[in-house]
Sequence to fold (136 residues):
Amino acid sequence: MKYLSILLIPVLMLLACESSEVAAPMGEIAIIANIGPLCPVANATDTTPCGYSVEKLNEIYGNYTLKILTEKNGTKIEVYSTKLSYPAKVIKALPMGTYSIDVNNQTTTVNTDVEAFTISSTEKQILNLEIDTGIR
Fold:
């Protein structure tokens, strides 16, 4: 029994080493999303966009979903999805690579000023995303 345990320990250690995978280097992205304009004319003294309450802004922002996608063999793959809230700030750790952003308002994709970004280091990156409502 003593010899069996002596032989079994190195075998188990070898199996444990073979089954562990090396994690891909990760970076972090902070996406700060601004949806607007929300009204045709804003007052310069408003403390929130168009003078709306935070509850109203959460209702408006909650209609928007932000998706982070990657591409593999020509197919887009969703890696993260979240409904926005006010103020919209999304922080996500991602493996290094190139990603695209898709924002939709319940049923339609909306225009943004950023279509893609690249995670190329382990340092945190900040991405300011302007989502155009089309209100003029």
